C-alpha cells in the first residue's frame, strides 16, 4: 500500500501536472469563451480576437499604443498624506494601500497614471485611471494627480486626455475622497480657461464619484464599446424606481443613442481618433512650427 500511495501516486501526479499548459500562455475571453493566445491578445490591445470584447486594460499597457513610437514620460503623483483618517475596515487602510502598491505596475503608486509625450507630433498630457489599483477608486492621490495633469497641460499648452475607469470614491478616505470631486472639477476648469481641449475616454467601468466629476466634463466624450458608464449601478436604480430597465442600459451604445457620449470608438482606433479631434479643436499654428498636418496612421 505504501508503495502505491508514496511512490506510484506522486509519479502519476507529476506526469499529469507537467502536461498542463502554463497558465500565462492562454486565457479565456469572458464574453465568447474562446481561448486566446496571450501574445496575440496583447498585440490586439487586450481586445478579444474573436468577438471584439474590450477587456479592462491597465494604463501602462495602453499608453504605448497612444503616443508616437510608443514613447512617453511618466510623471510621479504628488506626495499626499497616507491614511489621514487612520481608517480601518476588515484591514487597516495603510496596510491595504501598501499591498496594492506592491502589486501596482512599475513606477505607479496609486489609481492614476499621468504621462506626457507626442501624439500626432503634438505634446499631449494623458491621465489614465487604473481599475486594477483598488478598483480605480478616487482618493487624495488621484485628485492631486489630476490637478497636476491639468497644470502640466496648461504649462505646456497641451491638450489633456483622460481615460476613466473607476468604481467611484475611495471609501477609506471618507470626506477627503468626496472633496476630490470639486478639486478635479476645478482642475478641468483650468484646462478649459486656458483654451485647451479636454477629452474624456470612458472605459469599462466608469461609475460613482468619477462619473459625477471630471469624467463627464469633457469637451468631447468618447466611449470604448460596451463599457458600463453611470453613477449608481442598475440594481440600485431598479430597486428605487421599481421598474424594469431597458436592455443595454448604462452601456456605451445606449449612452450614445441618448446623447451622453459623442462617439463609441474601438480601442485600436482611439489614437487616430484622438489626434483628429485634438487637431480639430486646436489651432494648428500654435504648435511650435511642428505640426501643421499631424501624422495620421
Ligand atoms: Zn471574445
Write the layout of secondary structure elements.
Elements: H1 2-19, E1 26-28, E2 35-37, H2 38-43, H3 59-62, E3 73-75, H4 93-103, E4 112-119, E5 122-129, H5 140-155, E6 160-166, H6 174-193, E7 198-206, H7 208-211, E8 220-223, H8 234-241, H9 252-257, E9 263-264, H10 270-281
The structure holds zinc ion (ZN).
Search tags:
297 residues, 2-enoyl-CoA Hydratase, Chain A, domain 1, 35% helix, binds zinc ion
Number of strands: 9
At CATH level 2, the architecture of the largest domain is Alpha-Beta Complex
Strand % is: 15-25%
Structural class: alpha/beta
Estimated helix fraction: 25-40%
CATH superfamily of the largest domain: 2-enoyl-CoA Hydratase, Chain A, domain 1
Order of helices and strands: HEEHHEHEEHEHEHEHHEH
Question: What characteristic shape results from the CA principal axes?
Answer: globular
Rounded to an integer in angstroms, the radius of gyration calculated over CA atoms is 22 Å
The mean pLDDT is 91
**What is the helix tally?**
10
The CATH topology label of the largest domain is: 2-enoyl-CoA Hydratase, Chain A, domain 1
Distance between the termini: 69 Å
- Major β-sheet strand ordering: 3-4-5-6-7-8-9
Biggest sheet, open or closed, and with what strands and sense? 7 strands, mixed
Show unreliable segments: none
- Overall number of domains: 2
Given this structure, which CATH class of the largest domain is correct? Alpha Beta
Heterogens: zinc ion
Describe the structure.
This protein is an alpha/beta fold. It has two domains: 1-53, no CATH class; 57-286, 2-enoyl-CoA Hydratase, Chain A, domain 1, CATH 3.90.226.10. It is built from ten helices and nine strands. The protein has helices at residues 2-19, 38-43, 59-62, 93-103, 140-155, 174-193, 208-211, 234-241, 252-257, 270-281, and strands at 26-28, 35-37, 73-75, 112-119, 122-129, 160-166, 198-206, 220-223, 263-264. The strands form two sheets. It has a seven-stranded mixed sheet. A two-stranded antiparallel sheet has the order 1-2. Helix 5 (140-155) runs parallel beside helix 6 (174-193). The chain is globular and about 80 Å long. The N and C termini lie far apart (69 Å). The site of zinc ion has 8 residues, from loops.
